[in-house]
Specification:
Radius of gyration: 19 Å
Largest sheet: none
Distance between the termini: 69 Å
Helix content: over 70%
Shape: elongated
């Protein structure tokens, strides 16, 4: 017979590991990508996706429905605010004159090199 607790544990740990891998890949992208906007994209997307996967895994491990509801509210808050914050940072950078890298070799616009 299939043990439902074992299946729940396997699925929850798979979600948490996938979320952890998403966060780590975002950190690697933050270091490896060439300019501000691509780094911001890597951080913003993987932060949202990684946090949501980790929260879903935690919801499966929660002992009561009250804990699940609290985690759901935290997940909804992160799902709505993280992309808005990333957009606000990118928009502020754009409005102050910070432009993305351009061209086949990704030189900054106006380098003259």
């Amino acid at each position: 017979m299939i043990d439902l607790y074992l299946i729940r544990d396997i699925v929850s740990w798979a979600l948490m590991l996938a979320g952890g891998l998403a966060v780590v890949s975002g950190a690697i992208g933050l270091v490896r990508f060439p300019d501000f906007f691509t780094r911001l994209h890597a951080a913003g997307v993987t932060d949202t996706a990684g946090a949501e996967l980790i929260i879903l895994g935690m919801m499966l491990q929660s002992p009561t429905w009250l804990h699940v509801a609290k985690l759901a509210f935290i997940g909804a808050f992160l799902f709505l605010t993280s992309p808005v914050a990333t957009h606000a940072i990118a928009h502020a950078a754009w409005m102050t004159g910070f432009k993305p890298m351009q061209g086949p070799d990704l030189r900054y616009e106006g380098d003259g090199k």
